[in-house]
Design brief:
The structure is a single chain. This protein has 66 residues and is mainly alpha-helical. It has 3 helices and no strands.
């Protein structure tokens, strides 16, 4: 897995993950489970790899010099 998520993108993803995961504690009933969607940006922000970016050929991180 080659990195394809840049620093700014990672920070935004991790912030979105925190917000979405907090819905587990803030909402009541079945609506609270929407917060589990926050696991996706948590994974992609934590690993700096996004499978959809790979599929579409998108990179937000700088290309390493070889």
């Amino acid at each position: 897995m080659e990195r394809n998520v840049g620093t700014v993108d990672r920070v935004l993803r991790l912030a979105a993950a925190v917000i979405l995961l907090s819905l587990l504690f803030l909402l009541e009933g079945n609506a609270r489970w929407i917060g589990l969607v926050g696991l996706v940006p948590l994974f992609t922000g934590g690993t700096a790899w996004c499978p959809l970016y790979t599929l579409f050929g998108i990179r937000t991180c700088p290309v390493a010099k070889r």
